[in-house]
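hiii so my PI (J.) wants the whole complex modelled not just the main chain, which honestly fair. so below is everything: two entries, each one labled with what it is. i double checked the lines twice but i was tired so who knows lol
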Amino acid sequence: MAHAAKPRSVLPGFGLSLGITLTYATIIIVLPLAAMFLKTASLGFDEFVRITTSSRALSAYWITISSAALAALIDAVLGLLLAWVIVRYRFAGRRVLDALIDLPFALPTAVAGLTLVTLFAPNGWYGGVLEPLGLKVNYTQIGIVLAMAFTSLPFVVRAVQPVLESLEAEFEEAARSLGASDFQVFSRVIWPAILPAFLTGTVLSFARSLGEFGAVVFIAGNIPGLTEIVSLLIYIRLDEYNYPAAAALATVLLVACFATLLAANALQAWHLRYVEGSR
Amino acid sequence: MSSMTMARSKTRSTGERALIALALATAGLVLVVPLALIFTFALRQGVDVYLANILEPNTRHAAWLTMLTALVVVPINIGFGIAVAWLVTRFRFWGRNVLLTVIELPFSISPIVAGVTYLFLYGGQGLLGPTLQAAGMPVMFTVFAIFLVSLFVTAPYVARELIPLMQQQGRADEEAALSLGATGRQMFTYVTLPNIRWALLYGAILCNARVMGEFGAVSVVSGAIRGQTNTLPLQISLLFNDFNVTGAFAAATLLAFLAVVTIVLKSLLEWRGGGGH
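here's the output for the full assembly
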């Protein structure tokens, strides 16, 4: 842009907007985080390690990570399907379907949790069908996975959708005119273009699932070592007034989520480079 | 090749039909049935019981507190969002990227961790808690804690919608207004605000939905005192734990209705090409 060459902006409000932003960000965002890190730091290294590597914590990490990974996998498959159908086909109800995709983001997690636990209850709409088949969802890890998958469903759809929409028909037509089959067009032309967005959406979905609390708390039943995820364990430690353990575990979860989001940002940068490189 | 394209647009292939059916079945099972279940369960003992559940004093108070929280938090975060977006899209300065990362932090923080950070700031063993307690201004387990943690959780919502739009619009309009003699206030009211109004509304709607529905962070800092610091999501959890499932679903219908209104407004705004991407 031509403006970039200007050394200083002529626009007013730099001091005002800087003042508001810095004050607010400090009070609302930085100060609470600093308070938690101070609390964690005050534990000392040995105590921190003891808390965060206790067998209960380790099994909570495993349950959280494995559930979030499975949920992200489910969301990746369903998200790709939904994005594809919404962008590529015209059919009755398409716009409603498109709007409905955001329901898991708009619906409060507590409502989602309440609804899922009722759906999968032994006499529930879904549980009544699944339990006779021997598939128990409530108070098992399957319930955790489904709750995480539900609350993170829109990420992959919303990441892939704009890229699919912006794909120009000429590339596909060129491939077809050179004799490519439908499968070849998808795997050689479409898939490479949507891959970065698809991966970004999947990683975002995973990151969200790592920290999910509201939906899971209803359906998990917090059985230590079986259905206790990290955010539940933190909540239990708070309930026991075991604040050092809560601080240490919260720090671990914070760092894990932040690292995952950095990975998503790196993917996003790769994706942008791809988009700009193709122009 | 054109004959093939024609054929594709007129009659559907089996694969296309199968994919559409699969997508609709998925959306039905995953999105529509759960939404239908909320209203079915809330109304399963009749409209009278439903209304009695909604008007039950603790639920009514929770609904009021949820609305009050949104009324306090959304305008503040709109103001913050505008300030941030103005700052980062109109000026280049040292530390800009760090600032952007800090403002995005609440997105990457688990709600439960957000609650914990506020506990260690304002709680009994927190950084400021004892001082405020001694001064007769306790924050933890009051409605102020609910306001503060909601401000934290939704701080980036408005800014995230405004920044890409204002970046893309550039500053030419505002510079033109100034060169024609507008004051800063006039420039903001007559140029900036009309340019960003739809994205602003979009961000405010998403911010509102998250504030009203926040559960994890609020559950840590509120103390969930019935009739005092209980928001609707907490009330739903309390009713469910009391085995009052119909009451829980009655309270849930209020938030489910809010969710439906949110996605309808969001779609309308996207179709008119306003906010969003």
